[in-house]
Specification:
Layout: E1 2-3, E2 10-11, E3 33-45, H1 48-54, H2 57-77, E4 81-86, E5 89-94, H3 103-129, E6 135-147, E7 157-158, H4 160-171, E8 177-180, H5 181-186, E9 190-194, E10 210-216, H6 235-251, E11 255-260, H7 267-276, E12 281-286, H8 297-307, H9 315-322, H10 329-336, H11 350-368, E13 374-379, H12 386-398, E14 403-409, H13 413-416, E15 427-431, H14 437-447, E16 450-451, H15 455-465, H16 469-481, E17 485-488, E18 491-494, H17 505-516, H18 520-532, E19 535-536, H19 538-542, H20 552-561, E20 565-567, E21 579-581, H21 584-598, H22 646-650
Parallel strand pairs: 6-8, 11-14, 11-15, 12-13, 13-14, 16-18
Antiparallel strand pairs: 1-2, 3-5, 3-6, 4-5, 6-7, 8-10, 9-10, 17-18, 19-21, 20-21
Helix pairs in contact: 2-3, 10-11, 11-12, 14-16, 15-16, 18-20, 18-21
Length: 658
């Protein structure tokens, strides 16, 4: 099998292009190793020895083959990769070869899927062989040495977190899921209970803390439970959205607003505050990063919500609810994923099906807007299928109704669709930037009025977060989880002696996922730039690429378009442009991976590519000095060139920088 370096999909050896993402495949892709934050899942069959005594070899092989097939299906449904089958056990990794920002969540959802799948499998096995299986599962998260394109027989992940996941699985009771402490801290939306047994693990001085996975629960995936700061620093953006809604209502003409911003910058919070303060009907749908049948998923969510279609409804009940739409019902049912044998959609060509879907949704939104303005929020359109983007782009031009489509997106969308909504009268965009230093400090004070929090620690929190609200909240949340900040007599107090701010796994996951989705050449450039420093130059990066430096300038341009780096207006190196990582944590996360990625400790080179190392191990430049600052608080210089989405210019909207 050939593993795609872009998306991690396994492809047949003879394939020249990835069957999932279409990227060119190289059968001779070199194996690369890097340090990665990975969540590992072990599952095994309890009592497999007795099972072998009861069944002959042929029956046992059939039972285990069906078990492994079911486990693989549930693991891969959540984006995991089956690393290997060992006897009666399966090992899977989430975060290799491609990281996702929610790998701990995915692993726990996979464990719950396995538990739900097992009764179905057991009914089949009981009918065919008179046996039932019980499964024990262990899940753990940690830094490992990961092989992103392993050869046959080569381990995908190696390190202590793998061993601990296996130990958790061995300690779990049949039918139970034991979860490591780091996984439990990073996961959101799960009910976990403390595991009361002491887990002694060889080589560890203290017993291992574990949790029992009970199920899922309603919990915000971001933010600190019980704590919520007012929206800070977004008054101009709120006024812009409000004026646009008023225009849509007055002109009775639809409009598409794309809100660009890096992960965690506050796109969803801005939209939540906006929709809570205006008089309009609000409908919501979300694009998913993975799964089957998700082309029009956000529209399906909107339709089901408006029509009262429940996931527990059988097909006949759901179709009856959809048929109230009359002629549009077949296309809307098709969008939801309902199979109607009598539907005329069955006989149409793919092109005609798309045309019917466009026509049906024009009517659907027009009917919703008959009584007043509608705000249709379509989240995460950077993950949307091309057909979904085509529909979103075309609706506002053809819809004479007061509907405002609000679509938050990461900057990666412009790499996929450089002309997204460009030149259209009915579309505009807004670039949402991180909070300024004063606003970020105000947010921390509003979030937690903490006694005894030294100015040095407060500055380090602000420096690490650099105005990203999600990063700020997650750093504070980690301090709370580790009891470094606690509530006493109604006041928050900090433990004396806190002298460092550790990057939470949730933040690491977001940053690593962005880089892992880059094409391999751009990813190598990011890793090499991280070795040079927060501030870097093309020549220095080229010197680390071992003969792959021909396209460094164009690759850096691509990274700047993706909002990962910025070009500064001045340079400390004559004849070299100077760049800076937009966020210091992006550089920090990938500095950790660099030694593994190259197989050795990287050596810094001078911008010209020649060796320029000093006795201290770094060539003399601003990026090598540990005392270098780029601006107060470690933030990028305010004179740095800002990325602007193409549609923002064509539609006449100006992004609001703070």
């Amino acid at each position: 099998m050939t593993v795609c370096a872009r998306c991690g999909t396994e492809n047949p050896d003879q394939a020249k292009f990835c069957q999932e993402c279409g990227a060119p495949l190289s059968p001779q892709q070199a194996t690369s190793e890097e340090r990665k934050l990975v969540t590992v899942l072990f599952a095994d069959v309890a009592g497999s020895t007795q099972l072998g005594d009861r069944l002959d070899a042929e029956a046992l092989k059939d039972v285990m083959s069906r078990f492994f097939a079911a486990m693989r299906a549930e693991i891969e449904a959540e984006g995991g990769t089956v690393e290997k089958f060992i006897g009666d056990a399966v090992m899977a990794a989430f975060g290799v070869p491609v990281a996702h920002e929610d790998d701990p969540d995915r692993a726990l959802r996979a464990a719950l899927r396995i538990q739900r799948r097992l009764p179905v499998l057991n009914r089949e096995l009981a009918a065919d062989h008179g046996v039932e299986l019980a499964v024990r599962i262990g899940v753990n998260t940690g830094q490992v040495m990961a092989t992103t394109a392993p050869r046959p027989g080569e381990a995908m992940a190696t390190g202590d977190p793998v061993n601990l996941a296996a130990r958790l699985q061995q300690m779990a009771d049949p039918g139970a899921v034991l979860v490591g402490e780091r996984t439990a801290a990073a996961a959101r939306g799960f009910a976990l209970e403390p595991f009361d047994q002491r887990l002694e693990v060889r080589g560890k001085d203290a017993p291992v803390v574990a949790h029992l996975l009970v199920g899922e629960r309603d919990e915000p995936h971001r933010g600190i439970p019980g704590l919520r700061a007012p929206l800070v620093g977004r008054d101009a953006e709120l006024e812009l959205l409000g004026s646009l809604l008023r225009r849509v209502a007055d002109e009775r003409r639809a409009h598409l607003m794309t809100i660009y911003g890096e992960p965690g910058v506050g796109k969803s919070r801005l939209i939540a505050e906006f929709t809570a303060t205006v008089e309009a009907r609000v409908v919501r749908g979300r694009c998913l990063p993975y799964g089957d049948g998700i082309t029009f998923w956000p529209l399906a969510e909107i339709a089901k919500s408006e029509l009262g279609v429940l996931d527990t409804d059988d097909a006949a009940t759901a179709l009856a609810k959809v048929r109230v739409l009359g002629d549009a019902a077949p296309a809307i049912a098709h969008t939801i994923g309902l199979d109607d044998p009598a539907s005329p959609m069955q006989e149409l060509s793919p092109r005609a099906v798309i045309a019917e879907i466009h026509r049906a949704w024009l009517g659907f939104f027009a009917r919703m807007a008959e009584e007043g303005p509608v705000i249709a929020v379509v989240e995460d359109i950077h993950w949307a299928d091309g057909a979904m983007l085509d529909l979103l782009e075309s609706l506002p031009d053809r819809l004479p109704a007061p509907v405002l489509f609000v679509c938050p997106s990461r900057p990666e969308l412009t790499a996929r669709r450089p002309g997204w909504a460009g030149g259209r009268r009915s579309a505009s965009s807004l670039a949402l930037d991180p909070l300024g230093a004063a606003e970020a400090e105000r947010m921390v004070r509003l979030l937690l009025d903490i006694d005894d929090l030294g100015e040095g620690l407060r500055e380090r929190i602000l420096e690490r977060a650099e105005g990203n609200p999600f990063f700020l909240e997650e750093i504070v949340r980690r301090l709370i989880d580790e009891d470094l900040i606690s509530q006493q007599d109604g006041r928050w107090r900090a433990v004396a002696g806190i002298d460092d701010v550790v990057i939470p796994d949730t933040v690491q996951g977001v940053l690593a996922a962005r880089i892992d989705l880059l094409p391999p050449a751009e990813k190598r450039v990011v890793q090499s730039a991280a070795v040079v420093g927060r501030v870097f130059w093309p020549g220095a990066v080229a010197g680390l690429l071992n003969g792959e430096a021909e396209n460094v300038e164009s690759l850096l341009d691509g990274l700047e378009q993706r909002d990962l780096v910025l070009t500064r207006l001045t340079s400390a190196m004559a004849g070299e442009r100077e760049l800076i990582f937009k966020h210091i944590l992006t550089r920090d996360v990938h500095t950790r991976a660099c030694r593994g990625a190259t197989g050795r400790r990287p050596t810094r080179r001078s911008p010209s590519g020649s060796s320029g190392c000093s006795a201290s191990g770094g060539w003399r430049s601003p990026s090598c000095s540990p005392t270098t600052t780029t601006s107060p608080g470690g933030a990028p210089s305010p004179t740095a060139t800002a990325w602007t989405p193409p549609a923002a210019i064509s539609a006449g909207w100006r992004s609001t920088r703070r």
